[in-house]
Design a protein that fits this description.
The chain has 495 residues and is mostly beta strands. It has one domain: 7 Propeller (Methylamine Dehydrogenase, Chain H), CATH 2.130.10. The protein contains no helices and 40 strands. Strand 31 and strand 32 form a beta hairpin. The chain is globular and about 55 Å long. The two termini are 19 Å apart.
């Protein structure tokens, strides 16, 4: 049970009590400093004690200078240490994973052009190595959006994209790179698809599928046709691609939504979960026509679509971010953000305040077989100041896909609870980091508000396959330094 009261008032949500202190299992904390925060990657610590959070901090007093950031929390949300990684340029961390002896962070460094980057640390977050990758095919922008540690060789598999020119609207290619333990490329693959108009090729998530290889999702190009069946442009389709251990394509099942009749029917792959018991891949996507998320279940051996379910008809404006196991082995949990919500919550001074147009996080439990929804909640955290990516990532956000890659925004803990990352933007004009650890049934120590969600099947249509093109991603060196900044942080607690 939760330790606060919630009630509905004219369609708004009012939270009635202050949040109590963290228990041994659950907590909700705001982490504040004189910076903006972009932290949508959280994991339960591999050593069974506490949690790890990674992302980017923006120094508003230094011209919005950005640095990569890694933070370790204990079981109650108390910060044990944090590390900031800086080259003196502008860095962004978009993903991380745990290794045998530390962590790996993925993102990019802005050297006038964006340059893909992996950095490796020890178990205390101290910098061990940093590798940047300069695209040798086009010589311009590259970004890594997701990384996973590959335990079989202590190396990494990472995904992202390259931009073929200096304009954000220039053609893009999905990128997958396999590295050794030092981050040196073993192989890399670029993937292109037919293009007319805006180009959407991007790999936003890569997952190790034992016995099969690597599953890659993100976005690709879907044709837009006129009434006579002639292609007149492109929109965004969901990339679904399995590679073997050498990077060769095993199968592709990329798809779009419904029919060509919808000019705003964008679809993008966000996250995936492999179920070894059934040998199936659960692919979480976002659809822009109705601003809703969906799950498509693929056979891991063939790529065949076994079943699909959308979050509707009450799921409009629910943007998915992560799909993760539940404490119940027959269920999965989807996390995300409501695109626009109105609710009442306490401000920093304990005054009930009405918030509108905010994007609070939600969790939904779904049945693996039928897609039926069990429990579902959102958490009324004021968060109207989401920081968009823009720039060379801007075209991927067309069709109001505001959050198209956050596959590590929530995680199942070893004690069966769920930890999730969110924003809070009501303390000051800046954006603070919020971490909540809720029960395995979504119950929060603060406020959890039930949602009225159902699932329903939805038609998909196959897309033309992406085409591998010549690789070319050798590493280069840019010096990093580690800045210990824990003294700059303080926990706001919850109100």
């Amino acid at each position: 049970m939760t330790n606060s009261t919630c009630y509905l008032l004219r369609g708004l949500v009012a939270t009635g009590l202050l949040c109590p202190a963290a228990s041994a299992q659950l907590f909700q904390e705001t982490y504040h400093r004189d910076r903006f925060h972009d932290h949508y990657a959280v994991q339960d610590s591999a050593d069974g004690f506490g949690h790890v959070v990674a992302g980017t901090v923006f120094n508003v007093n230094e011209g919005d200078h950005s640095d990569m950031h890694l933070m370790r929390l204990d079981e109650d949300g108390q910060m044990l240490w944090d590390q900031v990684y800086d080259t003196g340029l502008y860095e962004r961390c978009l993903s991380f994973d745990q290794t045998f002896d530390g962590y790996v962070l993925a993102g990019f460094v802005d050297q006038g052009v964006n340059t893909a980057c992996l950095i490796r640390t020890d178990s205390d977050g101290n910098l061990v190595s940093a590798v940047l990758y300069e695209d040798q095919v086009f010589g311009v922008h590259s970004q890594l959006l997701h990384v996973e540690h590959t335990p079989v060789d202590d190396g990494f598999i990472a995904a992202g994209f390259v931009n073929t020119g200096y304009d954000p609207t220039d053609e893009k290619l999905a990128l997958v790179v396999k590295t050794d333990p030092g981050g040196n490329p073993i192989w890399d693959r670029y993937f292109d698809s037919s293009s007319m108009g805006v180009d959407y090729n991007m790999a936003g998530k890569v997952e190790v599928i034992p016995g099969h290889g690597y599953f890659v999702t993100g976005s690709t190009n879907a044709p837009v046709e006129d009434g006579g069946g002639n292609q007149i442009g492109t929109w965004q389709g969901a990339l679904a691609l399995l590679l073997d251990d050498s990077g060769a394509t095993v199968w592709e099942s990329s798809f779009g939504s419904q029919s060509f009749a919808f000019a705003n029917d964008f679809e993008v792959g966000i996250d995936s979960y492999y179920d070894a018991a059934t040998d199936e891949i659960y692919l979480l996507t976002n659809n822009s026509e109705l601003h809703l998320c969906a799950v498509t279940v693929l056979d891991a051996g063939s790529g065949a679509v076994n079943r699909t379910f959308d979050f509707g008809p009450f799921g409009v404006n629910y943007i998915g971010q992560s799909i993760l196991p539940s404490a119940d082995p027959t269920k999965l949990v989807v996390s995300g953000m409501i695109r626009s919500a109105s609710f009442l919550a306490l401000d920093p001074f304990g005054v009930p305040t009405s918030y509108s147009g905010n994007s609070p996080p939600f969790l939904v439990e779904i049945d693996k077989g039928s897609g039926a929804i069990g429990w579902s909640f959102f958490y009324p955290i004021p968060s109207a100041g989401y920081r968009g990516y823009g720039g060379f990532f801007g075209p991927f956000s067309q069709g109001q896909q505001g959050w198209i890659f956050s596959p590590d925004a929530a995680a199942l803990t070893d004690d069966g609870n769920i930890v999730l990352a969110a924003y809070r933007s009501n303390l000051t004009p800046q954006i603070d980091l919020e971490i909540a650890k809720v029960s395995g049934k979504g119950e929060s120590i603060c406020a959890d508000v039930p949602l009225l969600l159902t699932t329903q099947p939805r038609q998909r249509f196959p897309l033309d396959p992406v085409v591998p093109i010549a690789p070319g991603l050798p590493p280069c060196s840019v010096p990093f330094e580690t800045l210990f900044n824990a003294t700059e942080w303080f926990r706001c607690g919850m109100f």
